[in-house]
Amino acid sequence: MRVETVASVRYGDAQRFVPVVVGEFSNLVAHYPIFFSKDAQTGSFYCGAMLGIDEGENLFLTEGRTFDAYRPMNLQRGPFYMAGGDIAIDLDHPRVGESGQALFEDDGRPSPYLNSVINLFRDLKPGLDQTKVFVETLLGMKLIEPVDISLAFDDGSKRQLEGLYTINRDRLKKLSDDKVVELFHRGYLQAIYLMIASLKQVPVLAQKKNSRLAG
Amino acid sequence: MPDMIREIVVVGGGTAGWLTAGAIAARHQGRMKSGFKVTLIESPDIKIIGVGEGTWPTLRTTLEKMGVSETDLFRHCDAAFKQGARFARWTTGEEDDGYYHPLMLPQGFHQVNMAPHWLAKDGGRSFCDYVTPQGALCDDGLAPKTITTPEYQAVANYAYHLDAGKFAPFLQKHCTEKLGVHHVLADVAKVNQADNGDITSLTLKQGGELKGDLFVDCTGFSCLLLGKTLGVPFKDCSDVLFCDTALALQIPYATPDDPMASHTISTAHSAGWTWDIGLPTRRGVGYVYSSRYTTEEAATEELLRYIGPQAKGLTPRKIPIRGGYRETCWKNNCVAVGLAAGFLEPLESSAIVLVELSAKLIAEQMPANREVMDIVARRFNEVSQYRWGRIIDFLKLHYVLTKRPEKFWRDNTDPATVPGRLQDLLKLWKHQPPWFLDEFDRLEEVFPAASYQYVLYGMGFRTEVDPNDNEPTEDLAQQQAGENAAMTRKLRAQLPRNRDLLRKIQEYGLQPI
User: Fold this and answer.
1) Hey, is the C-beta of A99 within 8 angstroms of any chain B C-beta?
2) What is the pLDDT along chain B (513 residues), one digit of tens a residue?
3) Per the count of CB atoms within 10 A, which of B287, B324, B420, B467 is most buried?
4) Are B299 and B271 in contact (CB under 8 A)?
């Protein structure tokens, strides 16, 4: 059994919004806008990086190779996922087959690839829990607000992006000193400012889309 | 200063008592630092009425203003969604006879009156289906929002069905823990008055005295303060609305997946009507009837027959209903809210919304001192009288248009039992359909003009139509009808099933934003 690791539409990399963890924010901010959004099944908030404008569109994907930028952990994990305390593999995932990276060496030890996956989950699993606490804390301080994004492209088409949330900057400014210190010590203040800074990536993303539309 | 109004005493701990205490406390949080105090006193022995499960969309705003979490409401009060009421068998009495009174306004209500256009060419659809998606949503058993819709926000306008027995304790917890309301468990032995009739204090059976500047009578049917102490008479309205008894039952579901409607079902019977309200845990059903037209035995039989085999072995609880209200609700320094102020058969679940409107008025216009209280009282009385009168008119409307043959129903159409204002409206509406530019122009009408449209045209009333008069707004009406049809399709595809959403809310809760 082997796992293909190249970036491809075939392998599920064509997603416009990918769940991310707080620990990745400093890697994400240089390229992707980071927003909060709601899980359609449970209504719970999660953090996500925007990779594209339309459904199923990843503007950073160079087909068959890799990403043009940092690849969010949720895409790096490929067919692997957490099942309780163990790392499991989805055998039906298109990446799993005869070709690609081996999981084990001839002597039965984990391959470098598998080791990289194990290391990934060492960050990703606690990262998901930490991100959940981050979101709950911000919700409790009423620091999250909905945002509507309207885009107009050179070819005349328009897009309305809904269901996105960002940091409520007015409330942030009005926070009491003790809350600010608390956020600082928990590392949340940095995450908050990285999210705010990442908003500048929206016009950049729109420009990438614009170029694509122009052909 | 001696005559500043600072200490509010609410007497009675049912829905009315706690909603009023909560509304006042929430509005006057700031003043509590300087001596403003809200105390609710209730008897440890006298039970609350405990029936009262239908509400209006106003409750969403009322609870939000009080700082209550909607998720908590669902989790602690077995709440369910209510999108309106379906009236079955009120017109002809046949099995296929039924119409919806939904909570959404007709499409484009403020731009064009859809009624004359529907009357001219309805395409076989009911008025409700022509102007709103909500009837179809109720037919499909869908919820009025999704798990990602924030608390209190709606996709389709909604109110709640809830467990009345759990609602009062739920509010009590919130009011005492979050809003600073003081809670006293004691019986009132004596009501003490000043020379001018003002209530000065309550002597408690358990010892001690409770002083107050303003007393809110939420003692229910017994109306201890306004009625028994201040002697305000009760104005009976049984000459208009005949029902005087209710037989109430709670029925468990056979399985947890049994159908649960997201609307109240009101079915007409030989001498009255049954309410049928589905909560996640059980159904609440009751027969509201007139003892002048049937016996308790016959009524019980009709009720059990309506429910079917699930009623086996269940004994209904009999509740006498005295329909009417106090013409003066605020006398001296005492104001009655809830059943103490009046009661009408729950045909349109008006009891709790009246509590909310009264509580809001008292909270927002809390008189600063005893001198100006009489001015606020006068205002309150005038608006209350108006509201009771309008509710009576609107409930009567459901009866007066019937074609059912039984004596109870024939007698209901006798003009001697129909209020003059309603008679005039019906005369007028034969020639011109109601619309929001009608006489329902108060800032906070209990029933807007749209409600009258839904009932009138649901019961087959015909208003004359002049096609020439329709012509100038024809295009706009077509466009609105088209938008309604499109929205109906969209919502029927998008919205979750009622029970599924309620289960998710129990598990995941609704987000605050």
Assistant:
1) no
2) 568 999 999 999 999 999 999 999 999 999 999 999 999 999 998 887 777 789 999 999 999 999 999 999 999 999 999 999 999 999 999 999 999 999 999 999 999 999 999 999 877 899 999 999 999 999 999 999 999 999 999 999 999 999 989 999 999 999 999 999 999 999 999 999 999 999 999 999 999 999 999 999 999 999 999 999 999 999 999 999 999 999 999 999 989 888 899 999 999 999 999 999 999 999 999 999 999 999 999 999 999 999 999 888 889 999 999 999 999 999 999 999 999 999 999 999 999 999 999 999 999 999 999 999 999 999 999 999 999 999 999 999 999 999 999 999 999 999 999 999 999 999 999 999 999 878 887 878 889 999 999 999 999 999 999 999 999 999 999 999 999 999 999 999 999 999 999 999 999 999 999
3) B287
4) yes
Parse chain B into domains and list their residue ranges.
Answer: 7-78+161-235+323-389, 104-139+146-156+419-492, 245-320
Domain extent for A146? 2-207
> Which residues of B are part of the catalytic machinery?
82
Out of 3.10.129.10, 3.40.50.10380, 3.50.50.60, 3.30.70.20, the CATH code matching B7-78+161-235+323-389 is 3.50.50.60
Instruction: Please compute Rg for chain B using Cα positions.
Output: 23
Q: What is the pTM of this model?
A: 0.92
- Residue A215 lies inside a defined structural domain of this protein: no
Q: A-B interface: how many C-beta pairs under 8 angstroms?
A: 30
Cβ separation of A144 and B509 shorter than 8 Å? no
Residue B182 has φ and ψ, to the nearest 5°, of -85, 140
Residue A148 falls inside a structural domain: yes
Q: Which two tokens stand for residue A11?
A: 């392998």
Main-chain dihedrals φ then ψ at residue B330, nearest 5 degrees: -120, 110
Which three-class secondary structure state does DSSP give residue B161?
Answer: strand
Residue A213 lies in a domain: no
User: In three state form, how does the secondary structure of B441-506 look?
Assistant: CCCCCCCCHHHHHHHHHHCCCCCCCCHHHHHHHHHHHHHHHHHHHHHHHHHHHHCCEHHHHHHHHH
Does the beta carbon of A136 lie under 8 angstroms from any beta carbon of chain B? no
Domain total of chain A? 1
Distance of CA A22 to the CA centre of its chain: 9
**ipTM for the predicted complex:** 0.87
> Does residue A212 fall inside a structural domain?
no
Judged by CB atoms closer than 8 Å, whether chains meet at A44 and B510 is answered as: no
Token pair, residue B407, equals 């004596």
List the structure tokens of B384. 């209350």
- Alpha carbon of A136: minimum distance to chain B alpha carbons (Å): 11
